[in-house]
Design goal:
By secondary structure, this protein is an alpha/beta fold. The protein has 10 helices and 14 strands. Helix 3 links the parallel strand 1 (about 75-80) and strand 2 (about 100-105). Helix 3 runs parallel beside helix 5 (about 155-165), helix 3 packs across helix 10 (about 310-330) and helix 8 packs parallel to helix 10 (about 310-330). It is globular, with a radius of gyration of 21 Å. Belongs to the THI4 family.
Length: about 325
């Protein structure tokens, strides 16, 4: 196995201290609001927003979005799915390699997947140790219960990780955007690696995208062609089978790259969480699969309302990206 391409000055393990977050004003600490905000109190009768035209708002949005589309049409890594696994992968990868251009494609309007609530629509989020090391790194407070920790509300976890990821200069989230297909290349002998190669083998080299609302109406509208993002490595974290779930691995079956899906098994938390983290890997060249999507490939159990495996599967997916990135980029550039 090739060595992982990680800068020697940066440890692979998640650090125990959260990165510093710049406060907008030092006066907002210790329960105090900033003087600028408190100055508004009792002065609402003279309050007025700065005057701008409606077209200014439109241009401010569209200019930036189309710039992002242009910039990220050639990405280094695409992450499909902005749930807890995809977001933890993005955080880890973008932290270790700020030079990589990372695109996250999320079908929903609201990123976060199923991590806004715990089990059965309850608030608290439970993670078994050692997943608490990730919480410490991103700065999510929790109650330590010995072998597991509890975040008082799952939304606290998701919103914190989102804020960390979206604040990174090398990451762009395209939400309300569906992946409709994978970009593929023929995987030839002599591509610079050992392993199974030959007739019919493919390498994933990006994703085919469309607005999610467009994707949902291909059956009742005329042809609405998609867009594309090229990338030497794609990380798929689309969850277990569902309307948009297990998308990439189901597509691999259709392309005859894997014979069939193993099918997710019943709930067994003890077996499931270890299996998902350990099994996170590159399924075919250029495509790394993590989180519950992996259970559909391997026939792993579901783990129910505990989230540690999703987080650490994302961390391992980032490690897998770093392991194969240089090789896949060299192949992609040919």
């Amino acid at each position: 196995m090739a060595p992982i391409a990680i800068p020697t000055s940066t440890p692979v393990a998640v650090a125990s201290k959260a990165p510093a977050v710049k406060s907008p004003d030092p006066d907002t600490t210790n329960g105090k609001l900033s003087p600028a905000l408190t100055a508004m109190f009792h002065n609402w009768s003279t309050f007025s927003f700065a005057p701008i035209r409606e077209s200014t708002v439109s241009r401010a949005m569209t200019r930036r979005y189309f710039h992002d589309l242009d910039t990220h049409a050639e990405s280094d890594v695409v992450i499909i799915g902005a749930g807890s696994c995809g977001l933890s992968c993005a955080y880890t990868l973008a932290t270790l390699r700020p030079d990589l251009r990372i695109s996250i494609v999320e079908a929903g309007v609201a990123p976060g997947g199923g991590a806004w609530l715990g089990g059965q629509l309850f608030s608290a989020m439970v993670m078994r140790k050692p997943a608490d090391v990730f919480l410490r790194d991103v700065g999510v407070p929790f109650e330590d219960e010995g072998d597991y920790v509890v975040v008082k509300h799952a939304a606290l976890f998701t919103s914190t990780v989102l804020s960390r990821v979206l604040g990174m200069e090398n990451v762009k989230l395209f939400n309300a955007t569906a992946v409709e297909d994978l970009i593929t290349r023929r995987h030839h002998e002599g591509d610079g690696e050992d392993g199974e190669e030959g007739e019919g083998k493919i390498r994933v080299a990006g994703v085919v995208t469309n607005w999610t609302l467009v994707s949902m109406h291909h059956d009742d509208q005329s042809c609405m062609d998609p867009n594309t993002i090229n990338a030497p490595v794609v990380v798929s974290t689309t969850g277990h089978d569902g309307p948009f779930g297990a998308f990439s691995v189901k597509r691999l079956v259709g392309m005859k790259q894997i014979e069939k899906l193993g099918g997710m098994r019943g709930l067994d938390m003890q077996a499931a969480e270890d299996a998902i983290v350990k099994g996170t890997r590159e399924i075919v060249p250029g495509l790394i699969v993590g989180g519950m999507e992996l259970s559909e490939v391997d026939g792993a159990n579901r783990m129910g309302p505990t989230f540690g495996a999703m987080v650490l599967s994302g961390v391992k997916a980032a490690e897998e990206v770093l392991r194969v990135f240089d090789l896949r980029k060299a192949q992609n550039d040919k």
